[in-house]
Amino acid sequence: MNRLSCKDENQVGMKFIQSLTILFGVIATVLFPCILYAEEYTFDISEIEKKPYHIGGNIELKPILFGLDKNASLYKLKFYNRAEGNTIEEYDAKLQLEGSLEKGITKLFVKTNTDYKKSYLGEDQQTTIYKGFLSVKPSSSLSIDVGKKTLRWGKGYTWNPIAFIDRPKDPDDPELNLEGFIVASADYIKSFDGPLKTFSITPVIIPVYEDINDTFGEVDKVNLAGKLYLLFYDTDIDVMILSGGSKTTRYGVDFSRNITTNFEIHGEFAVIDDYKKRFIDESGNIFEKELDAESWLAGIRYLTEREATYILEYYRNEAGFTTDEMRDYFSFINAAYDSYLLSGSDALLKKGLSITEGNYGRMNPAREYLYLRISQKEPFDILYFTPAITGIVNIDDKSYSISPEALYTRVTNLELRLKVTFFDGERFSEFGEKQNDYRVEFRARYYF
């Protein structure tokens, strides 16, 4: 395998960024003038009539440049047997299609997701049904759904400790669509006059078998969940429960309230009974501890008169790892890497990979975080332009990530976003031991 010198690697990184700039310019030059030749508007009553079907979706292209940190523990764990340079590139593409068909009281909805990725590992393509369910609404108060869907429980923007039936969000991009689970659910809603304005109840059945929801938890179980919703004195309140055996029983409550038109507060609280926590010490010994783990979130969302949006959230998760437990994990990886260099055996590193998957390797595995996002719509009267900056801080070890970005929407249905993320922290801290020092990504997404 030919290896690039540091000078050549830096040139690769510069060429990558230059190519993003050129790509952005070409799209702007070719597509933006198209709106100057818009046809004269005509009114057609058929355009506003509701159709019994809908077909749509979006297509996305996203090249990424990673700046590697060769001294980081996670770099050693992932690339110990590879000769990578200072940067690596990745090219992602995504196609999401959705369609619905309504007939009387029934509705069929399907959403698919196709991912294509070309990276240092090669090429990979996968198509998944994100949603696919049949909905029956026999009355205005009752609806019944059967199939694959997301429930989207919780009021948090970045984290949702009470989202017992949903896959976890990516805190780096929490608005991404998520794959659902196969469930049977119902919604009954009733309105009142007085302090209690709305009441609804949502029972859910989640079967888990070898080929049905097998990533949800222990197989050969039928799980039951439920949500009670109240709109009480203009405050949204939810109470949730999950039980059944695939996961231990868990309870939760959330709320959200608009203090003023532009100022909202929200929170969540969850308890997981008999949570089993697996962790490793610096010598490689694996332990398991059982506890009733509490987690909670508090946040605000504020929109200023000049259309600047502030989102601030605090998240504490007792099921996460302490600073000492994270330090032991990183210390073990470094010791395993040193052993590999001396002996050529990667047995310890494979042990590290095993304890990482679904455990230390999950998104934000520690106990305490702070999230802040600030975005400004059309600053200095620059139309269609929205800059933003996002920061995530691990409060315990003081490490963090920070992500400035710019979004441009000059053409209808087209989003162009350039985003850079930097990771920093002390040795043996969460963000300080990431495999990357930085990440640069450009995303072009078109809706149809």
- CATH superfamily assignment? Porin
What name does the CATH topology carry? Porin
Element-by-element helix/strand order: HEHEEEEEEEEEEEEHHEEEEE
If you compute it from the alpha carbons, what radius of gyration comes out, rounded to the nearest whole angstrom?
24 Å
Unreliable stretches covering 5 or more consecutive residues: 1-17, 19-41
Tally of individual helices: 4
- Biggest sheet architecture: 18 strands, antiparallel, barrel
**Percent range of helical residues:** 10-25%
What's the rounded overall pLDDT mean? Answer: 91
Query: What's the structural domain tally?
Result: 1
Shape: globular
Strand content: over 45%
Number of strands: 18
Alpha-carbon distance between the termini? 43 Å
CATH class: Mainly Beta
Structural class by secondary-structure content: alpha+beta
Can you tell me about this structure?
This protein is of the alpha+beta class and 448 residues long. It has one domain (6-44, 59-447): Porin. Helix content is 15%, strand content 50%. It is built from 4 helices and 18 strands. It has helices at residues 6-31, 73-79, 323-343, 347-360, and strands spanning 53-68, 87-103, 106-119, 122-139, 142-149, 181-191, 196-208, 221-232, 235-243, 250-260, 263-280, 286-303, 308-317, 368-376, 385-394, 400-408, 414-424, 436-447. The chain has an 18-stranded antiparallel beta barrel. The longest helix is centred in the first third of the chain and has 26 residues, at 6-31. The two termini are 43 Å apart. The model is unreliable at 1-17 and 19-41 (pLDDT under 50).
